[in-house]
Design a protein that fits this description.
mainly alpha; single chain
């Protein structure tokens, strides 16, 4: 049935309102980052800076080691994404191809684990890392990120594996290929779009993560970029608004760029998982 013009206009209006709602924080953050101190202290804020300046960015880099924190975040997020994909790919293959009780239990764990709040997980994870002597270390934080992102990575990749025709694997088995050879030579190449989307999603999740890094990292040299942003807030809770907005603006750009590149792949993966699951 054709959509009536009034209904279509209402849909577009609702979509536009939703987009404005999503874009407002970032637009306001960008505007604040380029405003001089006089405009930030004004009683009548404006959308567009009247006298744009880069002073906030220079002050942010002068006050805090943003590059070192960004490097810590980059190393942590990259390692967590690679490890999560390396672990999730064979597990997703087993869950997709074997429909036994173990696969159903694993699927149930994936669904239930998404409901666990951060606070519920931090105490057991802290105790485990303490026994492994990995507290206040980037490898320990990487391990936590892998644990946190693994259920979602499994869910995404399981849908992709189920979309791969089993006949291709059967043909490889007829030619004498074992399970491992079939996975590496036949299935994984076909999973490349899903693996890329899953890895990039895990990267963005680890890049933006704050709570685990705040609890586990105590040495200033080890802190990641989201944690470092809290240093722009003084002891009395007063924020150095200009430098804070500039630093937050720079920290947000990588996530936006990554999501802009992979949003279609992520949408396709979610739909595949929903249809094939």
């Amino acid at each position: 049935m054709r959509t009536r013009p009034a209904a279509r206009a209402g849909q577009y209006a609702a979509l536009l309102a939703y987009l404005v709602f999503l874009a407002f924080p970032f637009v306001w953050l960008a505007s604040t980052a380029f405003k001089p101190a006089a405009e930030l202290a004004g009683l009548h804020p404006t959308w567009i800076p009247q006298n744009p300046t880069l002073a906030n960015f220079r002050q942010a880099f002068d006050e805090q080691p943003l590059l070192r924190a960004a490097l810590n975040s980059l190393l942590t997020a990259s390692a967590a994404a690679l490890a999560a994909v390396a672990v999730a790919t064979p597990m997703a293959y087993v869950m997709a191809r074997h429909r036994g009780a173990l696969a159903r239990a694993a699927t149930g764990w994936v669904v239930v684990s998404q409901a666990f709040p951060f606070v519920l997980l931090i105490i057991p994870l802290f105790l485990v890392l303490k026994n492994l002597r990995m507290i206040d270390s980037l490898p320990g934080l990487v391990l936590v990120h892998v644990v946190w992102s693994l259920p979602f990575a499994l869910w995404m990749l399981t849908g992709y594996v189920r979309a791969v025709p089993a006949e291709l694997e059967e043909a490889a088995a007829v030619d004498g290929a074992g399970r491992l050879r079939t996975l590496v030579s036949v299935t994984v190449p076909l999973l490349a779009p899903g693996i890329a989307a899953t890895a990039l999603f895990a990267f963005v999740t680890a890049w933006n993560e704050f709570f685990f890094a705040l609890v586990l990292l105590k040495t200033p040299e080890q802190q990641t970029l989201p944690v470092l942003l809290t240093r722009f807030i003084g002891a009395e809770g007063v924020a150095d608004l200009g430098p804070l907005a500039a630093a937050a603006f720079l920290a947000t750009l990588p996530s936006l760029l990554v999501f802009a590149l992979i949003q279609r792949r992520i949408t396709g993966s979610l739909l595949t998982g929903a249809v094939k699951g």
